[in-house]
Amino acid sequence: MRPIHIDRKAELDLFQDILEGRRQERILLVEAPPGRGKTLLLLEYQKITARAGVPCAALDLRLGSVGVSNVLTTMAEEWGWEQFPAFRHAVEDMLRPTAEVSISGVVQIGRPQVQVVLGQEDREVRRYRQRLLTDALFQDLSAWLGRTGRAVFFVDTYNLGTVDPELRDWLEGVFLGQVRRCEGLIVVIAGQQTPPPNVIWETCCHRLHLRPLDDPDDWIEWVRAANLAVSREVVAAFCHRYRGEPLDIATSLSMLQDWGGAR
Amino acid sequence: MNGPQNGSERDRLLAEATREFLERLPAPLAEAVWAAAVPHWFDGEILARILGIPEGDAAARYARLQEMPFVQPVAGRGYAVHELTRRLLLDDLWRERREAFRAWSCRAAEAFESRPDDPDFLLESIYHWLVADPNRGADLVWKWGAEWNNTFQYARLHALVQVGLEHEEAGRLEGRARGWIFLWKGRLHILYGDYQAAQVTLERALDAGDMDRALKADCILALGETHRKQANFRIAQTCYEEALGIYREIGDRLGEANSIWALGDVFRVQAEYKIAKDCYEEALGIYREMGNRIGEANTIKALGDIHRKKSEYRTAQAYYQEALLIYQDIGARLGEAYCAWALGEVYRMQESYGAAQAYYEKALSIYWEIGDRMLQANCMQALGDVHYMMREYGVAQTYYEQALCIYREIAARRGEPYCLRALGDVHRMLGEYGAARGRYEEALGIYRAIGDRLGEANCIQALGDLWADQGEIEKSLAFLDDAEARFSALDLPARVAWVHNSRGNLWHRRGDYAAAVEAYTRAIQAWPQEGAFYRNRAHTFIKMGDFAAAAADLEQAATLAPEHPDLALRRGQLAFYMRDYLSALRHAQEALARRSPFAPAAFLAALAHLALGDEGEATRALETALRGPHSKDDLEDALHWLGRLPETVPPEAVERFREQLREALSRFRPP
Predict the structure, then answer these.
(1) Taking chain B (671 residues) in consecutive chunks of 10 residues, what is each chunk's mean pLDDT?
(2) Are B157 and B188 a contacting pair, CB within 8 Å?
(3) Which residue of chain B has the CA closest to A225?
(4) Which of residues 170-229 of A touch B (CB under 8 A)?
């Protein structure tokens, strides 16, 4: 894999500042057309997070069946169910058929149980339960972050046309609203169209539009790493032809590499 | 490659670059790129299976793929060809090498099928079957769509539709596979309340899958649902009947039952109860035969609804009880809550307020648990009504205020004015006339704003009653005349009759009994099936001493509502005035058995005991009545009845009762 965002220093510095608390924003929305390098930038952010020893979790919405329950359980699974007692308790409560029956110690709360309690026929019931579970999860998150300081949650492939509408409503309303109130939690969402401005969390949010990489200097390190013998002028011509679109430039420059012999 | 399909400049340039890139690769590596583009993600094992070679042999190619500029890591899964490059590659592959596409898709489908417990693998497998074997893909879309729809896993259903639409947009989806994808897309539109989009999508499903009878039936059934949701009942009925015919033809018993049940719903909302009932009973038989318990419970509940609408409360009650037990058995909380609420309604209509209260409270607790704010508010409002009828005005006020808060919070514009008017009634009963007027006027403003003419007329009548309570006869009559005109314009004779009844009450309390009788008579003429008008006129006849006329009216009232507690009360009062104290006591006790607390009956029982010489029991009964909720009118009536006691009652006992009643009246403030 070629790191085609290699010269995205400004974007990397921005994340570093957010991670280290030098900026007040904790929601970073990365927006760009396909092939601009969003996924690879997020991977780079994850490496920075890991190097800083900060816990992180990631979810890729390209993998089909992602709903609200997947977002909640991904955080619990990655950061440890034991950190989320209120969340587990809320799920237990919803699983309990009557007030007289206790399921404590009988059912291990995990991804399937969350799926069950959020799998409700009535839309209002689903929304209410989503809100309750989100409140409980963030109550636990706040307590946990009080001890650990920071954590980062990454969401990739956020495209309005393909994301489940219910997940989109929840993510743009309930979830990001809670993120704003949850000190220490950083959320990065990347996609072709990121969530629209929202009065609740906009002040806590930075919107990053990935620019095209149309300056040949952006590509010098990449060309060196790919071991390509091309001049700056050739790179400049490619940048111009492909209007700075990284996927296109990288694909065409890679033609110049020896992959084992042309047919 | 001949160039991208969608024709954009960006696509054209990238397609050229990718084509040239592939041409410079060794053939086996280029083939691996094509194969890797088929799935949404791959790892070494999946790549080897798609290529049809051992994993060890594919390892080197897998490693080289990871170095390519359009290959990206996918967390926890492996790698993926970038979506843009992938789309361009697949467009070419479909156009130039369709058989290879199908063969690789078939191997991919089998590879992803190996982990059916993981929904992403299952979806990916279905995605590939849709191309490799469209019929098998269609069957899987039907099967898993139904499974996820029935278990409310809508995120998965959405994902299923998305994978199908990806093929559809690229022109790779055909026949019934296309039809089933559109069916589920249409169903999702219904779920999100977008009925127009649902209809367009379902029509496309019908066009796509005309050979698949089950698909056609499901589409028409779903189309019926969109029409029913938009109150186009006749079209909905036609759809359901057409779907039913197909289900019968193909022997799909569940589809048959669902269509008949849906037809029942259409007839029920149009008040065609007889046909609706027949439909529900037929559907019920099939659900029972199939052991489909949720269908059984839903149908029994619907039968309860029909009988409730027809005021056949005891039959409705039996159906709701039966449905309730099934819902409890299968853990369907919404159905359980609905039945509890409906039982509250039927008990309330039968004036069994204690039972109604218990069921409403049960429904409320479930709605709290599952978090449905609107239904919580509806239950609170109903509980307010029950406590109001039990003259527990403080409790009623609390419930109405809580319901009002929720209605305002969720912007339920019809619930809000109902609660305001009910709160006005509570204030009126407490003698807080200024507060009552404020509430009525606030409700009136909202009804006007939302264009609810019935609500508006009800508020105007309530204001007329309020002025009557304050002795403002001219103002009261003006409001009542206005209300009558409005109800007449709405062609609501029952409501017009209640306005005449209000006038009757006004004249009765003013002591103008002739005018009262005339007003009640008009009420009876306008709506002869209401027992309350006969009971009220009987009350006036009793005051006039026309016991025969009163008895005749009570006989007539008994034919309309034989178990009404007010009937027993009026019979008791008539007996008391006729100095038949034993009958008076029996009727008062009957009234108390039917409604408790019931202050006028309690006072009557106390005085009947006194008349019968049981001073101890009379004293206890009076104290109980005074401790319970009662109105100023109840006390004044009881004072009036003291004058009808027999001479055998010791005067000091009469005086003691009079003092207690006067004292209560002087510090009158209802609980």
Answers:
(1) 54 90 91 96 96 93 93 89 94 95 97 87 96 95 91 88 94 92 94 90 87 92 93 93 96 96 93 93 96 94 92 93 93 89 93 91 87 86 93 92 89 87 94 94 93 92 95 95 94 93 95 96 94 95 93 94 89 94 96 85 95 94 89 87 91 94 78 39
(2) yes
(3) B67
(4) none
Residue pair B665/B635 in contact (Cβ under 8 Å)? The answer is yes
Q: Across the strands, what pairs with B74?
A: B78
Give yes or no for a contact between A210 and A38, defined as CB atoms under 8 angstroms apart.
Answer: yes
pLDDT, tens digit, 9 for 90 and up, residues A109-166: 888 888 888 887 777 778 888 988 999 999 999 999 999 999 999 999 998 888 888 8
Which of the 8 DSSP states describes residue B42?
B
Determine how many CB atoms are found less than 10 A away from the CB of residue A171. Answer: 21
For residues A34 and B345, what is the distance between their CA atoms, to the nearest angstrom?
58
User: What is the strand order of the sheet A151-156 is part of?
Assistant: A56-60, A151-156, A185-191, A27-31, A205-209
Tokens of B589: 């006790």
Other C-beta atoms within 10 Å of A176: how many? Answer: 21
**Residue among B13, B18, B75 whose CB faces A60 most closely:** B75
| Three-state DSSP state, B372 | coil
Q: Are B97 and B45 a contacting pair, CB within 8 Å?
A: no
Q: Which residue of B has its CA nearest to A131?
A: B371
Q: Does B119 touch chain A (CB under 8 A)?
A: yes
Q: Does B197 touch chain A (CB under 8 A)?
A: no
Buried-exposed string B307-325: b where 16+ CB fall within 10 A, e elsewhere = bbeeebbeebbbbbebbbe
In angstroms, the separation between the Cα of residue A214 and the nearest Cα of chain B is 15
Distance between CA atoms of A37 and B34, rounded to whole angstroms?
22
Instruction: Find residues 455-514 of chain B whose CB sits inside 8 Å of chain A.
Output: none
- Give CA–CA dist B59/B65, Å, rounded: 10
B307, two tokens: 């009988």
- For chain B positions 47-66, those within 8 Å of chain A (CB to CB) are 64, 66
Strands A27-31 and A185-191, sheet pairing: parallel
- The residue among B23, B66, B158 with the most chain A CBs within 10 A of its CB, best to mutate, is B158
Contacts of residue A123 in chain B, CB cutoff 8 Å? 191
CA angle, A78 as apex, A160 and A29 as ends, to 5°?
A: 30
Using a cut of 0.90, tell me whether the model's pTM lies above it: no
The 3-class secondary structure across B579-607, one letter per residue, is: CCHHHHHHHHHHHHHHCCCCHHHHHHHHH
A64 touches chain B (CB under 8 A): yes
Query: Mind spelling out the 3-state secondary structure of B457-514?
Result: HHHHHHHHHHHHHCCCHHHHHHHHHHHHHHHHHCCCHHHHHHHHHHHHHHHHHHCCHH
Is B67 an interface residue toward A (CB < 8 Å)?
Answer: yes
Residue A66 touches partner B, C-beta closer than 8 Å: yes
**A259 contact residues in B (CB cutoff 8 A):** 24-26, 29, 64
The question of ipTM being above 0.90 is answered as no
